[in-house]
Amino acid sequence: MTSFYDEVQELRARYPEGSRSAALPALRLAQEKHGWLSREAIEETADALEVTPAFCYSVASFYDMLHLEPVGRHRIDVCTNLSCALSGARQVLEAFESELGIRAGETTPDGEITLRAVECLNGCGYANVVAVDDRYHEHVRAETVPEILRGIDGGT
Amino acid sequence: MAELKVLLAGADEHDLTQLDEYRAIGGYQSVAKARAMTPDDLIAELSQANLRGRGGAGFPMGRKASLIDRKSPKPKYLVVNADESEPGAFKDREVLARVPHRLIEGCLIAAHAIESTDVFIYIRGEYLTEYEILAAAVEQAREAGISGDVTITVHRGAGAYICGEETALLESLEGKRGQPRPRPPFPPIQGLYAAPTQINNVCTIATVPVILEEGAEAFTKTGVPSSPGTAIFSVSGNVVRPGNYELELGTPMRELLYEHAGGIADGRELKAVIPGGSSVPALTPDQIDVPLDYDSLGALGTFFGAASLIVVDDRCCMVQLAIRSTKFYAHESCGKCTPCRVGTRWMVQILESIENGTGTHADLDLLDSVGDNILGKVLCALGEFAVYPVASYLRHWRDEFVAHVEQGGCPFHGSSSLEGILAPSDMHAHTPAGEEALV
């Protein structure tokens, strides 16, 4: 099995020597391994990239897809930007909130699912758009929310 | 007029994510043609085609290529901007998912023009499925020897609208926070890794093989003289058939909205069209006979932008629309320039006070004044993208803003289509204890 360190070296080899371009792919890899970017994950990434943990933290804190706090095993992202908002995003988000018993921004008490309202996922023509673990579901309506939840491994 | 599928040609009949199928319809013949030309001749051909950038700015692609310092001892880079994040846009996604080889062929042609052997495609992190399709296509082209000495690297973003701005994209690609750089120096002189860099949108690059295939002269016969070719128009919001429609530039907006997209849904009345993605000034129903090209939309004081039309019907409160739009730009402001970082938040506060009935007539002028103090005082266009739409709502629907002030609240009384919509910046659950969210 390839170690995290070796995988990061492979990522670094794709970019010019001395550049830090592997930072985002390495942080994503660390997040996949740890579930979120804990202090330990940040330090491990910094070591492999030969940069300071502060640099990694500064980069990670800029991007919405990198999590500096624990998140659920599954992530549900509901787009609430203009086109989805005009097409009933509020009802879709509320359906998830009521089915899961949590509010947007929260994680179910069993740590399974984190629900978020997110900015435009660019599926505007196929509203409503919901991403479950980064896979898009399109034409979602409040009525189809239970079906989406049933499709999640270990869902409620 | 029917759709004219040029960028998406063959995609309905074939699985063009597969190399053999793309080759079977004549794919990768344009790159062979291009490689038989000198870079100078190729750039001349691209310049003659007058292909204008499809990312939003409309800068001629051939002229951009001519600005690259090909004599520089440094490597030359081609960077494709696939960080599609403009609310309302979903055209690049369709190209990435359905005709990835046409994009790759465009990359190889453009790389030959600027004598580059290193291409980066920066794709937004949320486009996971599109990334997998594109990465597989890149691998197919490499294995088949089509890429030659050109290395194409697909680089994933991680969720930041600002990285669609070209210099923020370069910073992000260099592994940093995606904050825009001051210009000059411009990327063709000093871009990625401080080397000459050409940056183009997905649809721009995917159009390049078409120009080589039919020749620049034939290409300029489609569309209108000032904006030749076709564009994939993304239509969303309150229409019967939202979706992507590839049409010649210069097609009247009315035809796109009423013939292709089927008109306004649920028998409602059209109220507003935001023609280029949420960042551009909106148009009123009496303006929709405008031809969809850069100059015609420019003449109305708005922008072609990302060819992405958000259609708004009469159920929508324009103050709420302004709030939701501004919350997005406030959320996505990178924080580098004070007028944008602070101004967008201030705009949200003023708009919310108008919506909840505590606003005054003076707040309407204050809103304009805060906008004026962002415009032209920031490093990139994001701050302007926050201001343009709101200024246009205030100009065209001023009566509605005034009604909020005079009636002490929203004249829709809770029936607006955007009532109660939650923005990500409204979620407080992840705010560390003891720290208040900024918005």
Total number of strands of chain B = 10
Order of helices and strands of chain A: HHHHEHHEEEH
**What class would the helix/strand composition of chain B place it in?**
alpha/beta
> Remind me, CATH topology of the largest domain in chain A?
Glutaredoxin
Instruction: Write down the oligomeric state.
Output: heterodimer
| Level-1 CATH class name of the largest domain in chain A | Alpha Beta
Q: Supply the number of helical segments of chain A.
A: 7
Explain what this protein looks like in three dimensions.
The complex is a heterodimer of chains A (156) and B (439). With 156 residues, chain A is of the alpha+beta class. Chain A has two domains: 4-60, Orthogonal Bundle (Arc Repressor Mutant, subunit A), CATH 1.10.10; 74-150, Glutaredoxin (3-Layer(aba) Sandwich). Helix content of chain A is 41%, strand content 12%. Chain A has a four-stranded mixed sheet with strand order 2-1-3-4, covered by helices on one side. In chain A, a hairpin with a 2-residue loop joins strand 3 and strand 4. In chain A, helix 1 (4-13) crosses helix 3. Chain A is elongated. The model of chain A has no long low-confidence stretch (mean pLDDT 96). In chain B, a hairpin with a 2-residue loop joins strand 5 (223-224) and strand 6. In chain B, helix 2 (29-35) runs parallel beside helix 6 and helix 14 runs antiparallel to helix 15. The longest helix of chain B has 18 residues, at 338-355. Chain B starts with 18 loop residues before the first helix and ends in a 32-residue tail after the last helix. Chain B has three domains: 19-219, Rossmann fold (3-Layer(aba) Sandwich), CATH 3.40.50; 224-313, Ubiquitin-like (UB roll) (Roll); 318-426, de novo design (two linked rop proteins), CATH 1.20.1440.230. Chain B has 439 residues and is α/β, with parallel strands linked by helices. Chain B is built from 17 helices and ten strands. In chain B, the strands form three sheets. In chain B, strands 3-2-1-4 form a four-stranded parallel sheet, with helices on both faces. A four-stranded mixed sheet of chain B has the order 8-7-10-9, with helices on one face. Residues 430-439 of chain B have low confidence and may be disordered. At the A-B interface, helix 2, helix 5, helix 6 and strand 2 of A face strand 3, strand 7, strand 10 and helix 13 of B.
